[in-house]
Amino acid sequence: MAAAAAAAAVGGSQPPQPEVPAPGLALDKAATAAHLKAALSRPDNRAGAEELQALLERVLSAERPLAAAADGDEAAAGGGGGPGAAEEEALEWCKCLLAGGGGYEEFCAAVRAYDPAALCGLVWTANFVAYRCRTCGISPCMSLCAECFHQGDHTGHDFNMFRSQAGGACDCGDSNVMRESGFCKRHQIKSSSNIPCVPKDLLMMSEFVLPRFIFCLIQYLREGYNEPAADVPSEKDLNKVLQLLEPQISFLEDLTKMGGAMRSVLTQVLTNQQNYKDLTSGLGENACAKKSHEKYLIALKSSGLTYPEDKLVYGIQEPSAGTSTLAVEGFAGATGTLGQLDSSDEEDQDGSQGLGKRKRVKLSSNTKDQSIMDVLKHKSFLEELLFWTIKYEFPQKMVTFLLNMLPDQEYKVAFTKTFVQHYAFIMKTLKKSHESDTMSNRIVHISVQLFSNEELARQVTEECQLLDIMVTVLLYMMESCLIKSELQDEENSLHVVVNCGEALLKNNTYWPLVSDFINILSHQSVAKRFLEDHGLLVTWMNFVSFFQGMNLNKRELNEHVEFESQTYYAAFAAELEACAQPMWGLLSHCKVRETQEYTRNVVRYCLEALQDWFDAINFVDEPAPNQVTFHLPLHRYYAMFLSKAVKCQELDLDSVLPDQEMLMKLMIHPLQIQASLAEIHSNMWVRNGLQIKGQAMTYVQSHFCNSMIDPDIYLLQVCASRLDPDYFISSVFERFKVVDLLTMASQHQNTVLDAEHERSMLEGALTFLVILLSLRLHLGMSDDEILRAEMVAQLCMNDRTHSSLLDLIPENPNPKSGIIPGSYSFESVLSAVADFKAPVFEPGGSMQQGMYTPKAEVWDQEFDPVMVILRTVYRRDVQSAMDRYTAFLKQSGKFPGNPWPPYKKRTPLHPSYKGLMRLLHCKTLHIVLFTLLYKILMDHQNLSEHVLCMVLYLIELGLENSAEEESDEEASVCGLERCHDSWFPGSNLVSNMRHFINYVRVRVPETAPEVKRDSPASTSSDSLGSLQNSGTAQVFSLVAERRKKFQEIINRSSSEANQVVRPKTSNKWSAPGSAPQLTTAILEIKESILSLLIKLHHKLSGKQNSYYPPWLDDIEILIQPEIPKYSHGDGITAVERILLKAALQSRMNKRIIEEICRKVTPPVPPKKITAAEKKTLDKEERRQKARERQQKLLAEFASRQKSFMETAMDVDSPENDIPMEITTAEPQVSEAVYDCVICGQSGPSSEDRPTGLVVLLQASSVLGQCRDNMEPKKLPVSEEEQIYPWDTCAAVHDVRLSLLQRYFKDSSCLLAVSIGWEGGVYVQTCGHTLHIDCHKSYMESLRNDQVLQGFSVDKGEFTCPLCRQFANSVLPCYPGNNVEHNLWQRPSNRNIQDLIKEVEELQGRPGAFPSETNLSKEMESVMKDIKNTTQKKYRDYSKTPGSPDNDFLFMYSVARTNLELELIHRGGNLCSGGASTAGKRSCLNQLFHVLALHMRLYSIDSEYNPWRKLTQLVGEMNSQLGNEEQQPEVPILYHDVTSLLLVQILMMPQPLRKDHFSCIVKVLFTLLYTQALAALSVKCNEEDRSAWTHTGALKKNMCDAEKSYEVLLSFVISELSKGKLYHEEGTQECGMVSPIAWSPESMEKYLQDFCLPFLRITSLLQHHLFGEDLPSCQEEEEFSVLSSCLGLLPTFYQTEHPFISASCLDWPVPAFDIISQWCFEINSFTERHAEQGKALLIPESRWKLPHLLQLPENYNTIFQYYHRKTCSVCTKVPKDPAVCLVCGTFVCLKGLCCKQQSYCECVLHSQNCGAGTGIFLLINASVIIIIRGHRFCLWGSVYLDAHGEEDRDLRRGKPLYICKERYKVLEQQWISHTFDHINKRWGPHYNGL
Fold first, then answer.
1. Under a CB-based contact definition with an 8 Å cutoff, are residues 1799 and 1814 in contact?
2. b/e per residue, 1826-1842, with b = 16+ CB within 10 A?
3. I need a surface site. Which of 444, 493, 1099, 1409 has the fewest CB within 10 A?
4. pLDDT-derived band of residue 534, with 50, 70 and 90 as boundaries?
5. Nearest in space to 689 (alpha carbons), one of 571, 564, 558, 566
6. Which residues pair with 1330 in a beta bridge?
């Protein structure tokens, strides 16, 4: 009962009232507070202070609540009702005390007035929408809240909107992070000068109360924390504590929001050390405080931390407050080395990692690290609060509170220091956390606010050893997951690497720490300290070496690997984030000459680390076979710093290079990676699974390439430029395992490579050499040139969108590096090299995006195949680039054939790297080139065009980069003497090209053809001797050559390496002669490189002597060599270009080329072909022919399918053929013939084997969306704008029907209107037919097919077997001819009276359902389908449920819906005429048969048949009105004429005769015209009416009075005047009717417009039933054309005088009689209900075409309004808001909150608004989603950015603008109901959207 007691004590004089929080108590609190405030304001306030302390002691005692809550012990909380009451009470007290007796709200307002803060500082959590402006930001992490962004001026800036991942805070007003020009209006003006000073007494109480309050919070946190048991995470308990503390923390958070004045009080409280000491030391006699202090110490201890006074007794005072937290001397000893740290997080590690521990102990020996890791001492509330925040794994509320305080500068510094002090502890907690993702986000949420500020970062670095702490903590973190490296020497390796399978790496747990480190390195002052501190650099290299050689791959040689590990993701991510990004950060500060020293430091420690690494893995000179690691961060650090040194710092390269031996070691591993790439692409690693391919791709992928492959290649270039070229070249071929292939012999044995891989490995080796020699990324290109080259390479592979280009171009990963995506240089280069192709739209095709495509001159001059090869992730992209290049050359007429990759001029080399070109001028390479040319010429196996292409490329590179011109004479003189030891005389390619090689001795297998031949040796020994002298080259062995060079290098370098025993591995590589049974043969060659080239020219061109030196004709060529004709072409062109260059380089070459060409080459003898070879050739030929045949068939099939698809897909191209084979041409054919697309047979549809049309039935509410005004409705984007649905067509029709049902007989009402405006059934077909039995078996097979289809077979859905169009039913075709030819010749001029009688008789006959045939069964089942297509509420309008009238109404309304929709598809009128596609694919004819068959089952009682009222005069009118109690029938003038038409026609037996049809139309037209007159008469005012009555009455006796609208109008008016229709207009109506003067023209126009909708529908009907074409016409003559087409116009009608609609009238009975009969019905109704009488008159049709809502230009308008809007149903802000584009309703997508009967809101809305079709715009994704029935699909976006692309999910956050064309396409698909056909990717939504 402690709480009650406390309350009593507080109450003072009053009796306690704990149960009822009486107003007295509150008053009393206020009084106490006021009293205390007064007491404290006195100069001597000790008494007041003590009183307050006592009060707080009581109120804020921490003993009760948590204990109570934890044990669920309600009683302990006193009568306050549950555990929360006491806390609430305490909070109330605090509020009262702070306010000092006043009201709390007023107090808040008062404090806010003194807010001097010029910073926004708004803190947000994950998923908040914020902005980032790169133009205004100084720090890359800068962000703004939406309000500040929109109030600042960022027009034309490079900004984007983003969804915060980890949370953040608004930087507006902080000039450390952003430029002041970007501040918003609110934060520009406020400077602290005009803020008044805070009155002392305002915040006095706060200074007394808050320390106790915060201490109380800390006690709660101490109480609530229990160390989690060893295995069970105790998140539950922690969350419980946090929930209880929610109000307290929220209270603090509210305080921070009061502004600067309150924040500074809080800062004082949080950082005051004395306060903390007094309250928390746990001394004193308070038992509770003691206990809490003990809990705190236990918590510290269990965290592997020591409280510095650990070994002292608790009572002793602590040392002076000044002792540094980090260097508390003497306590490091207490912690031992590391044993204690390990105890907490090592349990899970087994003994195998002893090595890691061993290493770790070494690392942790120095005390500094120890104190960083293990000692924590809290001296203020802030420090302990942060400790608990970490302990509780960063609860969101606490984080927000701590961040909200940041605008206070003093706090910011204190908090940052505290954060750094706890850094190691944060890392430990993070490692143990089960929710490391959430926790990581929260850590970064805090740290990014602290470390983005350079000034702050610098201060903390200087005062708190920030860098030491970070590096040490990272090192410790990685140490927990080290394993022994298996690279190179498995047994004896001492190297340890991180294990990529560990959770730490797999889940990226390290990223918060790494990201902080990258963040602080981006500040120059901090980075400089790092680069100057040698100890730090050593530690850092130590850290990097943990990643060196991780994720080692071993090639599987026998079995396929069982389990494909995916650890490589973790490895690549770790190298990029933990090694490369900090490296780029450091590099960005090494840009100028003054920073040379830094580079020297890094390079020095990097080389030391590399040397240690080589020693640790026991490396000498041969890499272990079949192993590769893609991770060499040390090599890459070294390479990148070298590159920077030469490029920006003007350092002498040689001064930072190691000795030759180290260079040889350095090149081995990067070279190994290049060879492995070739092996992987040659499928040699296929047994390692797909993941190894994944690694090879990631290594070159755009986000990784400039931190991986580029530095590797650069390092190899550096090594190559400094090492002996022969050694380097032979190493390359040896690494690529193709040494044995490089022999002159036609056969060889390769001991290390299978024959099938030889070709691709040789291609790989040569391609690598080409890249190595021609890439200039780090060898002299400027940044802009690099950017341009990268861009050209990407654009050449494929056209690209702007965003994918940004993504594909490797930018420097460090955000501060300068080349920012989207920066000025990017845009200017892009516009220089590419043209923009605006997005295009094919209806029914896919949505295109705006693309960039290379300009013609780029293809012409800048296409660089080498760069393309380097940058392709997929090999197919290289092919794609070549195909596009070929197409360009064909199109521009530059080259017709298949071109070779063009040779591109290179940027000049930086002088430091000149040595690289020695590779091109070394004998080894020349021998290889010579050998390969010879082999290609002799057609040896395993050589490809690609090999030749690369060989020629290398020769050309050599000619381009040859040394100075050699003097011809000197070369020729000493030629002979110099050549007996080797193939070639010198090392210059230019002179070596012309050197003839006569004989070569080769080692060949015994079986080789060379052995059989007589060798020249057998002729005579002396001839052999002379041969030898004239240069028989010995066997040339690359391997031997390399060994020799290696020894030389080793001996030269006086290192101890030459004592090292040769490694055992060396004999794996076949030394010459080690292969089995090799024998030596001597080949006669007698060729030089030049002669081989010329012969190759002949071979490629297929003609003898095809090469003729061009300079013999045109000496000019030698003077101006750049000839455009040589720049593009195939191999022949390449050879010509090379010969020309060779001739240019030396006169000797020119002479020799001429000589070679003069010696006419003898014709090549035809090869003798053996029988076996002939057989294989025949086989090949036969295969080739079969292949061609197959291609041809496939092509034919494809073209057929294409032409068919075009027909099927296109929505609106009129002239297409083949859908329905209806033979309308010859009238004598009696029956229609149908093709079944399943069985392929043709034949008529018969009763027992009916054929059907493939149809799709869907419910549609498109008609109901027509509105009556032209102004399109806009999507509401503010609270004021709303859309009201009552002016839609559907609403108006609904109102009318319910009005009729109120006053008239139900059955009669249901004949007077049509339904189906909402939820009407629309039937469409693709025009293909099939037998119904075939269809059933087809459905069976679909049902058994287990493949996932996008449709549900159980619901009867399928795709048309021929055109794959979506369908769900089959509409049976009625036997007999489709179009009744024999009946529709011009109708005989029979009397209309006879026809009327016939119609009546025919309708009267009941239609018996035909006998049970297959056809009738199908008719029934399809009718059932049609009914089930729409929901019950759209079919049942009758008052008596289940009445047959319902079905009757529904059936004729289906016909109406389809006719009306077709009219809309034709644009709302029939002016275009013709049989459009809609006509050709229409199924209305078949549909009519089905409907008519069913409608005739319900005969209308002839008494009630409207036909009689239309055509007969009823005797006495009064008889009907006699019986009052029964509701009357609907007066005929209230009937909808189109509905009557359909009823009349569907009641007739089918097939219908044309003259009957015309008769019905004529009769109905008279009714329609009368309705028009009645409507017109109501529209005008009293005087007009009387005037018309008068004029009309005069003409009544004319001969054709019945056909004069004036006469008829006056008669209608006079008849209707007898009732009350025109009454009570009186006053109120006058204002409404606009006083238009009705002229005869305007009246005529009104009458025509009134009748047109009916004429249009009727003409369409006639067109479908009788196959008559619709004439096309002008809009103004539509009425006359249609009426004559329908036979309403008398044939003799003259067209001179103006057309008068009345002339179409043909009255079946005297006009005046029948009119007066019709008017009488209305009069008798208006007697009682005059108001409704007028409302029910049929108005003129005013419906415009349906449209979707109009959308605003800029997407942001929609986004800002809707993404924070609350849902009207659940009043929450939806997670996925969406808005309906048809009616503007706002809905929650997937929101469980708004679910009704298991339907989520979008699905529900799609049923109510669109009868199953919904079009929703997803606000957070800018994408449109379509719901159709039970399926949905993502349609795409109608908003595109400035570069014409979508931004799905708003990932890029660039401004988006409406794309009108796309929106039109969407609207078109909605209106034409073609979503199902055009969009392909449908899936079921299970009602969950």
1. no
2. bbbbbbbbbbbbbbbbe
3. 1409
4. very high
5. 564
6. 1252
Phi, psi at 620, each rounded to 5°: -110, -80
d(CA 966, CA 1587): 117
Spell out where 378-479 has E strands. Answer: none
Partners of 1823 in the β-ladder: 1818
Give the helix ranges, DSSP H, for 1226-1351.
Answer: 1289-1303, 1306-1312, 1332-1344
Angle at 52 between CA 49 and CA 55, to 5 degrees: 150
Euclidean distance between CA atoms 1837 and 1305, whole angstroms = 50
Question: CA torsion, points 808, 814, 818, 820, in degrees to nearest 10?
Answer: 40
CA–CA separation, 912 vs 449, rounded Å? 44
Cis peptide before 1551 (omega within 30 of 0): yes
Count of C-beta atoms within a 10 Å radius of residue 1371: 25
| HSE (side-chain half, CA atoms, 13 Å) at 479 | 26
Q: Please name which of 1216, 1232, 1211, 1264 lies closest in space to residue 1489, comparing C-alpha atoms.
A: 1232
Contact 176, 454 (CB under 8 A): yes
pLDDT one-digit tens code per residue, 1504-1555: 677 877 787 775 444 444 444 577 888 888 899 999 999 888 888 877 888 8
What DSSP string runs through 15-78? PP--SS--HHHHHHHHHHHHHHHHHHHSSS-HHHHHHHHHHHHHHT--SHHHHHHHHT-GGGGG
Single-letter residue type at 1782 = V
Inter-helix orientation angle 875-892/783-797, to 10° = 90
Burial pattern 1766-1796, b for ≥16 Cβ within 10 A else e, equals ebebeeeebeebbbbbbbbbbbbbbbeebbe
Q: How far is CA 1038 from CA 733, 743, 751, 771, in A?
A: 8, 10, 15, 21
Return the exposure string of 1025-1061: e unless at least 16 CB atoms fall within 10 Å of the residue's CB, then b: eebeeebbbeebbbbebbbebbeebbeebeeebeeee
The DSSP secondary-structure symbol of 245 reads: H
Could you tell me the CA-to-CA distances from 113 to 199, 259, 400, 741, 1822 in Å, in that order? 11, 8, 23, 87, 41
Say how far apart CA 1415 and CA 1425 lie, in whole Å: 15
Q: How many CA atoms lie within 13 A of 884 on its CB side?
A: 25
pTM of the model: 0.81
19 burial class (0-12, 13-18, 19+ CB within 10 angstroms)? exposed
Q: What is the secondary structure of 456-509 as a DSSP string?
A: HHHHHHHHH-HHHHHHHHHHHHHHTTEEE--SS-TTT---EEE-TTSHHHHTTT
Q: Which residues of 1806-1817 are buried (b: 16+ CB within 10 A; e: fewer)?
A: bbbbbbbbbbbb
Q: Could you give the CA distance from residue 548 to residue 569 in angstroms, rounded to a whole number?
A: 16
Q: Which residue spans within 76-127 are E strands per DSSP? A: 123-124
Tokens of residue 17, six digits: 């009232």
3-state secondary structure 635-702: HHHHHHHHHHHHHHCCCCHHHHCCCHHHHHHHHHHHHHHHHHHHHHHCCCCHHHCHHHHHHHHHHHCC
Q: CB within 8 A of 1203, min separation 6: which ones?
A: none
**Two tokens, residue 217:** 């919070």
Q: Give the list of residues 6+ apart from residue 1240 with CB closer than 8 angstroms, or none.
A: none
* Beta-strand relationship, 159-163 and 129-133: antiparallel
CA 547/CA 887 separation, integer angstroms = 46
Distance of CA 847 to the CA centre of its chain: 15
Spatial neighbors of 541 by CB under 8 A, at least 6 apart, are 605, 606, 608, 609, 634, 637
* 3-state percent breakdown (helix, strand, coil) of the chain, nearest 5: 55, 5, 40
Q: Percent of the chain scored above 70 by pLDDT?
A: 78
Both tokens of 486, joined, read 């298996």
